Amino acid sequence: MIEKINESKAFIDKVISNKKIETMIILGSGMGGFEENYEPMHQIDYKDIPNFLTPSVEGHAGKLSIVSINEKLTAILSGRAHYYEGYPIQDLVIPIRTFSLLGVQNLILTNAAGGISNTYEPGDIVSISDHINLTGNNPLIGKNLENFGPRFPDMSEIYDKGFQKLAKEVSKNHFEFKTGIYAWFTGPSYETPAEVQFAKNIGADLVGMSTVPEAIAAKHAGMKVSAFSLVTNLAAGISKNPLNHEEVVEIADLSKQKLQGFMKEFLSELNLDN
């Protein structure tokens, strides 16, 4: 695994001429095309980067853009591969570990999620405050990669409170700020009403099929993490209608301008503060 990560790092290092990248953002549903807000210094398809997985899901372009935000380099990863696509979980976090070795300190994650909390409506943007891993898997299983972090990393505060404070301030210009706990299911089937009720009973506000492996790997590597869910539907048993991916894409498209406007300002302020 470390050989794969080093190979990816060497490739990107050569592209950016060994410059330092401060921040990376992984774009989920509702964020497609966000990279077009910036003039790319470099743009590469995942398939051309050694060991990067190419997503197969609609709305995940599979493209890396290196841009400058407030004179600091930021890596924008348009789309992600998911565990339900059949990949080993350790391969899913190669981008996180690659950019960690490149010196990235800040990770921003976005996703589409089902809303459980009765305070959420489709189109809401929620800052993730914590997560519950319900999959029985973890990207740190196997031999510990000592270059990144300890065998037993602390997970008391995966999602940085300073970033949440900044998000709350920035959101005033865009939407009502909400926070929530995200429960990770493997997918690709949507959760059953009983599973959603179980997640609600143990404290979850959101359900989804991504983000948690990346957050765990980033925290292990000492990165500061912030994550945002776009509530694209109410979860099974809460919604009165059957769930489908077309609804997710539709709500994501309708909320695109709001989410991307917020994220542009958030990244700008983040790069000023760091």
Short synopsis of the structure:
This protein has a single domain (2-273), classed as Nucleoside phosphorylase domain (Rossmann fold, 3-Layer(aba) Sandwich), CATH 3.40.50.1580. It is built from seven helices and nine strands. The protein has helices at residues 2-15, 89-92, 94-101, 161-171, 193-201, 212-220, 245-273, and strands spanning 21-27, 42-45, 63-69, 72-78, 106-115, 125-133, 178-184, 206-208, 224-234.
| The CATH topology | Rossmann fold
Proportion of residues in helical segments: 25-40%
Number of helices: 7
Q: Strand sequence of the main sheet, in spatial order? A: 5-8-7-6-9
Q: Strand tally, please?
A: 9
Distance between the amino and carboxyl termini: 31 Å
Task: Write out key terms for the chains shown.
single chain; 274 residues; alpha/beta; Rossmann fold; five-stranded mixed barrel; 9 strands; globular
